[in-house]
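Protein in question filed below.

…
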Amino acid sequence: MTATRTTLKARDVMSPEPVNVEPSMTLSQLARVFEENDISGAPVVNEEGRLIGIVSKTDLIRRCTEGTVEVPPAYFFEVLCEQSDEDEQRAPEDQVFVEDIMTEDPVSVGPDTPVAGVAKLMCDGRLHRIVVVDDERFPVGIVTNLDLLRVLAHER
């Protein structure tokens, strides 16, 4: 990366073709996607493939430790520890889905957004990742805090 931070755009530092998840995935399916792809977060897309949310390991852990009004924290740990075959046998009302823990309407940027602008959004919002979307809100990449650190490391 020979360009300076002021000329770099989101497209220059993003990881292209992010792993997307669906709101109907169970928490154990989500955990498996994170593990298999060695990622800590993913865009959530609707049936058309457009960005509707974002979910991370932090969301998963937070939900597991806090629980909900209806569900105690221990239940979430049990769900994550059980095999995927058991998800299908579990009654639908007993399942917890990505849509239950995702952040809706996440901060996103276009591919031409300057890296400095992406960094400011991440700092101001205390965000670890921002989805890069095209004009129709289809995810085309993701910028993480580590991507921004790489930019700084290359400048030194």
